[in-house]
Amino acid sequence: MSRPYNFSAGPGALPEAVLERAAAEMTNYAGSGMSVMEMSHRGKEFLKIAEEAEADLRDLMGIPANYKVLFLQGGAMLQFSAVPLNLAADGDAVDYLSTGYWSDRAVTEAKRFCQVSVVASGEAGKYTEIPARDQWKTYKEAEYFHYCANETIHGVEFHDVPDVGAVPLVCDMSSTILSRPVDVSKFGLIYAGAQKNIGPAGLTVVIVRDDLLDRARKNIPYLLSYKTMAENGSMANTPPTYAWYMAGLVFKWVKEQGGLAAMAERNRAKSSLLYKVIDESGFYSNPVKPECRSWMNVPFVLADSKLEKPFLEEAKAAGLLTLAGHRSVGGMRASLYNAMPIEGVEALTQFMLDFARRHG
Ligand SMILES: *Cc1c(COP(=O)(O)O)cnc(C)c1O
């Protein structure tokens, strides 16, 4: 029997081909007699895995040579602390855009270390839209400008890269990295927890422009320093070796699929199919303004919240897993990361139409 479709927001589904390859290599990687989990991170087998993963990611995203790529632990949330500690001094002014749950968590953390200015907030509109550019109160001397490219919980996504002039642009790309092409040269720093669209939990990817490495505070914890990690090939201590290996398999898979342009085409098609069914149903609804709806995470509610429990139960029985919304907002959420095939979204929309017919 084929596997059910998993709509989890994170850790999310991985490509089946990647899981199968990892399974085949589990106990004896490439004739080494060891699992990747059992290898020294300084041995030649693992160093090759690590280098190939970085080269493939650089190739996929077109990362310019003056950027370092770091493979770190701690999750995206540790970057909420690492970014201000590396890029700004105590009391320095930094700009943050508030578009939902995750960018607000980043604001809360940065306030512990810097003078944070929230340039605009979508809170009044319950995070259903990105505040209009002409409303942003940006500061041209800010040390950096932070935003979240895709709000995983609220389902709000940027479909372009904001222009903030010469201020280094810092982006939480956890739930949208690799879903479409992106011009890395527009950013000072990009970070992403792996467990949405890259691989298993436990790995965080940071892409940082060279000239920003010298800004860190003197008393920054050794392992939080981007410069330390860059100088040590992300191996200032033991890196998350297995997650790094899995990420490498995913990068190869994405390349085989045709790279980020092919991913973008699929992701646009998958999400538009789902939004169309939601909008035309009169039974389901999504509150986000069409121009900033996420391709990756589609939250929706049912006409009658009492139907949520049967919806989830029947969906599960139909092989459609993990559709409950985040505990902070309720409702439903379908996450459509790269590993979700169009067939999964077709199965979901068929189920939704059928459920609406029976309960509407
Ligand atoms: C999941 C997520 C986080 C938190 O990631 P952790 O790895 O759990 O720290 C932060 N930002 C965004 C956009 C996310 O989707």
Task: Kindly summarize this structure in a few lines.
This protein has nine helices and 14 strands. The chain is α/β, with parallel strands linked by helices. The protein has two domains: 17-256, Aspartate Aminotransferase, domain 2; 259-359, Aspartate Aminotransferase, domain 1.
How would you characterize this protein structure?
- With 360 residues, the chain is of the alpha/beta class.
- The chain has 2 domains: 17-256, Type I PLP-dependent aspartate aminotransferase-like (Major domain) (Aspartate Aminotransferase, domain 2, 3-Layer(aba) Sandwich), CATH 3.40.640.10; 259-359, Aspartate Aminotransferase, domain 1.
- It has 9 helices and 14 strands.
- It has a 7-stranded mixed β-sheet. Strands 11-12-14 form a 3-stranded antiparallel β-sheet, with helices on one face. It has a two-stranded parallel ribbon with strand order 1-13.
- Helix 2 crosses helix 6 (241-256).
- The mean pLDDT is 97.
- Pyridoxal-5'-phosphate (PLP) binds next to helix 3.
Q: How many domain modules? A: 2
Helicity range: 25-40%
Q: What string, H for helix and E for strand, traces the elements in order?
A: EHHEHEHEEEEEEEHHHEEHEEH
If you compute it from the alpha carbons, what radius of gyration comes out, rounded to the nearest whole angstrom?
21 Å
The CATH first-level class of the largest domain comes to Alpha Beta
Protein topology:
Blueprint: E1 5-6, H1 16-24, H2 44-61, E2 67-72, H3 75-87, E3 93-98, H4 101-110, E4 115-121, E5 145-148, E6 150-151, E7 156-157, E8 169-172, E9 189-193, E10 204-209, H5 226-231, H6 241-256, H7 259-281, E11 284-285, E12 297-302, H8 308-317, E13 320-321, E14 332-335, H9 342-359
Parallel strand pairs: 1-13, 3-4, 3-5, 5-8, 8-9
Antiparallel strand pairs: 2-10, 6-7, 9-10, 11-12, 12-14
The structure holds pyridoxal-5'-phosphate.
